[in-house]
UniProtKB/TrEMBL annotation:
Keyword Transport: no
Lineage per the UniProt record: Bacteria, Bacillati, Actinomycetota, Actinomycetes, Propionibacteriales
PROSITE patterns membership: PEPTIDASE_M14
Active site: residue positions: 457 (proton donor/acceptor)
GO molecular function: metallocarboxypeptidase activity; zinc ion binding
Protein name listed in UniProt: Peptidase M14 domain-containing protein
Signal peptide residues on this chain, from the entry's feature table: 1-31
Amino acid sequence: MTPLRTTRPRRLRTLAASGIAALALGVSALAVPGALTSAQGTVGTADVFHPQLLKVDTPTRAAKTRLSKLGLDLTEHAGHDYVEVVVHSPLDLVALTAGGFTYDVEIEDMLLREAQNNRANAEYAAEMAELGLRSALPSGRTSYRTLADYNADMDELAKKRTLVKKFAMPRPSLDGRTIYGVEIGSDVRRPSTGRPTMVLMGAHHAREWPSAELAMEFATDLVQSYGKNRRITRLLDRARVVVVPVVNVDGFELSRTDGAAVDLREVDNGGTVTILGTPGQAYKRKNCRIVDGQDTPDGSCRLTLNSNGGFGLGTDLNRNYGGFWGGPGAAGTLPDPSSDRVAGLPDPTYRGAAPFSEPETQNVRDLIAGRQVTMMISNHTFSNLVLRPNGVNPTTIAPDGIPVGNAPDEEGLKRLGKRMTDQNGYRNIHGWELYDTTGTTEDWSYNATGGYGYTFEIGPDEFHPPFEQVVGFYRGTGKYAGKGNREAYLIALEHTVDTRFHGTLRAKQKLPKGTVLTLSKKFRTPTWEDSFADGVSSSITVPRSGRFSWVVNPSTRPVVRPRTFQAYDDAPYKSQTFVGGPTTPVVGTADHEFTVPATADLLKVDLTWATPDDLDLEIYRKTASGELEEVGGSGNAPATVESAQIVDAAPGTYVLRVVNYASVTPTYDLTAALFDSVTKRTKGKVERYTLTCSRGGKVLGRTSVLIDRGQTKALNLATCRR
Ligand code: 0X9
Ligand code: ZN
């Protein structure tokens, strides 16, 4: 049975929200000047709250939902009964305690941990240098790169002119930096003749340093191996690989420099006055957006004083993509009554003012829309996961009233995910299996282009662990030694060129050399509540042979393919209302029993109340042995009614538990109802590309192209011969 989640507009936790926002800003505003004054030797770090990593108990689904609404900095590290959370201020701790949450402290002082990691990094690098050893990474590096290192290393790779091209992305970052990438392939200096592209990216999130390292190491590996390793040589003869190691250059630069600046004396002296010991921006997550719609004055991001941790100003680039933008698991701007989250800009998952409002995501959109990207991997840290679309639970009702459903390529995405996780030992799961997200990179890239897209969450337990671990992340350790993410990426590259998963376009005729073929499509990408004008357009140039073989994504987008779903009757065939209260305040509960006589297509439970109370709902089913098994629940912000839906509810006795968080004397109505349904299928749409041919800028012909995965089409392009 799957509990069904609804995403109705929710009211804000007004008081707490403004309080948390104000204090989060206040504390971080304190923290950075702390660094400035301590440089003058006056202020130590002991009076500044240091970020901590907590493992928060979430024994029920309702608890998890409730936690996700506190606006805290959740990590991707979560299990069925816990979620790891970074706390950045005393108010975060207050919010947790007030919410009735219990937790274990995983990293007591992330700043101290930063300092310890710095020491470990320094020792490792020194030891390796002393022994005259390189690491087992392709680059041989023994320490994390800085942004300058990335740019220099890309320059170095691009010296292999026949194989590598360094390029600048079209838009600079908000703080005025140029964002670079490398393109690798044996035909890289010639116009494209139809090879597919794999895109590998790192550091959408500033603090996730290994995500950038692994992208850069794979690029280095490919370049070193070309001509030496048969498998890689063949792949680079058939594909292009575009690597953008650091997408969020501004955020990364701040995180990396502040992270390195944590003074080692911190460890020895236990918080005595240090020059550099400040949380600073070592755990920054987002980009450098300060005011929506306004460019950030170049070089000023560091001075914004309040971007530590996931919080502070900035847009979460991994919520700013257009796919399902504005839906669950992404914070909106204050005051935004439809937001899931309590805070706006300071929220770790702030989605930005509009889909693709940020230059960094616009760059990636143009990169992916401008070529046939049949494979996309966006690296993140941490949790040892390979995540596939979609980002929201398939039972979630989309604004069109129909459940979101699984990706139409679920089977293929899952199988490839398994092949990759067989190499790195990670879990192969959907993005939503830990928590809902919308506006992530693959939510857009997959749904707009059909190219498979994954998020890799690299490493077991830290955003940027001691560097030595990065070597293992790439090469694999233990059971996975010699495999690791290197092998996972190579499998992804093999998928990039595997025409069983892509279309292949050819022409019936030989075409004159230099004929330019453009494959384009205009469409509207659905956001959560609206849509925006979107499209793809890629070109190739016919080579001297007059023949081409163009590997392309299917012409119909996943997001418009038919969806199968259950349509439920408006009226229930059984319904029962319990009038309840008052219950004991502060996590007091009241249980009500409801019988489901035979499997019900839908069990819907609604909890409403008149006074501004904070009640949550948990739903259990009694097992044969009389134990309570949680089957659903709803944990909204205070004063918001609760509603839970359980599809295919098994027969038996259900316990509907009303949880009272704060009220003195709440009264409520609790209604349980059973509904029948019929299976329906949306019609879906069939989409075609427009293929245009031109020579010397003159358009010669235009035709529409329908193509699906695994198909090869020989097009009649007679008009292009003129
Ligand atoms: O939240 C994110 O953006 C990613 N996790 S991270 O800790 N690196 O920030 C995960 C994105 C996809 N995940 C889900 N759909 N749950
Ligand atoms: Zn991330």
